[in-house]
User: What shape does this take?
Amino acid sequence: MSTLAHVFEAEGLATVTLGSQRNQIANTAPPRGLWCDFPLGRPLGKPGDAEFQHRVLAHAFGLLGATEPVFETFAESIEDDGSEVLACPLPPRHDPDAHPAVDEVRGLRPAYDRAVARYGNRMGAGRVVDADHIADAVEALVRVATGTGWKEAGIPGVPARVAQDVRGYYETAALGLADHAPGAWAGTRWFFDHTEGGKVLLAAREAMRAAGVKQPIWFYMAPGDR
Amino acid sequence: MADRHVKAMTADIETPVFDTTAFTTPRPLRECTVAIVTSASLHHPEDDDFAPSDTGYRMLSAARRDYVMGHWSPNFDATGFALDINTVFPIDRLDELAAQGVIGGVADEHLAYAGNQFDLSGVRLDSGPAGAKQLVANGVDVVLLTPV
Assistant: This one.
């Protein structure tokens, strides 16, 4: 992001750059940088809080008055300490013959559809696997987790992209189940730590790692600290 | 897992160093047209998805709100954007600032690039200058850059 600021200024545009990762924005040193200590993915800080977002913008645009390169820190920070987890009710088992994760995917569909109707499909399924086929993708991941090679298991696309669709499906469904705006990463923790689908995805990733699959193929199926 | 763990993992990624810092002094903000440029890989549903090492950009219409997150990285929270696009792409906030006369206007078109690029030469030499020229041609004075 900061690289673009340098390029744009050279083309005659004045820029203000927000950054969530202090080292990166400080080291790349854009002409006017504002470090906001907010969770990654939320550069304006708080969803649904226009007043807070305006405070960020007021500070950022205030940097346009500087007469030389400037780097400042936004006064408020938002910390994610890893403790908030969504308390979403998971659907009861419906089809005892289906794998628990596959049954779960099907059971979450009404919540997913509710969230899409409310917010739009901004980060849910649909990159390579649409909502109608998430259960098929999870079945393929089950096969990988239980010993089938990833190339033979029928994963319907690049594993990292398929994983994003599965995670996006769950995290979108969580928004349809939650009664409040969740904090950053709360939906991710819920998915990986509390759902059958998340467990299957991590198990498939681990099976690929253990089988010696090239690191870029499996690593990006989940956040890097997993 | 927590946000600080992910940040710690990526904190030491090598960043480009610029020998000089270009610096453009804008007109008063109340006279400026403002555009958002984000590295969140946003696009409209009918646009081409971003490829893993895609250094190009997509145009985002200010008249629409059907933005889709196309980023390949799993290392950020996307639910904030799902709940409220302004968490990443504060287009409604810019509209409000324009209505208040704080900024001169909101650009009709904005840009999205894909962050998390390891080879930035394409951005520095090709798509970055091309995007900037497009914004200048559209009458943009000030750019707000937002990451994810």
Remarks:
- Residues 100-219 of chain A form one domain.
- Chain A touches chain B through 89 residues (CB under 8 Å).
- DSSP finds ten helices and three strands in chain A.
- The beta strands of chain A are 14-19, 32-35, 70-73.
